[in-house]
Amino acid sequence: MLRTYLQDVLGIKSFLSAMSDSESPQLLEREAETREQLSTYRFVGQSSARILFLREATDVSVFEGDLEGLYKKILQSLNRPPHELATLEWTSDLEAVLTHIESLQPQILFALGPAAIRFVDQFMSPAANATVGASTSHFKNAIVIKSIDPADIKQNEDLKRVLWNDLKIVMKHLDVV
């Protein structure tokens, strides 16, 4: 079941491909642990990524359906190599999400949508809390840029300009960082 999820949903084709389902109990235990982690949050990218996009997975993931194409365009607009970009999307267990962010140490944290913004706000001093748009703040030594959720653009095309302006801030910081 996990193999099917990883292959069909996440597009990971080589995971456990050489192993049969009847292999060791340790393998089954690792699969169960992986399945639990995937049910609370999903990280896509390399741990050395400079930019981390943070988003709560609500009704739809940025890795599925209509949002997937839009999200790919957002990432491509930064004109950065794929190894510099990562995405962390969660459904629960914010403590695990925080631990994961701390282990990554991104240079730029791009908070997409109100839930991601609230998440980073709880770990910053009130004076550092920035509003959505052209302002930035810091979270665990990363520059934070707060923006709208890509799902909102699907409902209101006029929000593309807001997101584009925020992406330009990321590009400006990349030239400096």
Structure description:
This protein is an alpha/beta fold and about 180 residues long. The protein has seven helices and six strands; from the N terminus they run ααββαβαβαββαα. It has helices at about 1-10, 25-40, 65-75, 95-105, 115-120, 150-155, 160-175; strands at about 40-45, 50-55, 85-90, 110, 135-140, 140-145. It is globular, with a radius of gyration of 17 Å. The model is unreliable at about 1-5, about 10-35 and about 125-135 (pLDDT under 50).
How helical, in percent, are the residues?
40-55%
Low-confidence runs: 1-7, 9-37, 125-134
Shape: globular
Rounded mean pLDDT score: 75
Largest sheet, if any? Answer: 6 strands, mixed
C-alpha end-to-end distance:
42 Å
| CATH architecture annotation name | 3-Layer(aba) Sandwich
CATH homologous superfamily grouping: Uracil-DNA glycosylase-like domain
Derived structural class: alpha/beta
- Largest sheet strand order: 1-3-2-4-6-5
Brief characterization of the structure:
The protein has 177 residues and is of the alpha/beta class.
What is the strand and helix layout of this fold?
Elements: H1 2-9, H2 25-40, E1 41-45, E2 51-56, H3 65-77, E3 85-90, H4 94-104, E4 108-112, H5 114-121, E5 136-139, E6 142-147, H6 150-155, H7 160-176
Parallel strand pairs: 2-3, 2-4, 4-6
Antiparallel strand pairs: 1-3, 5-6
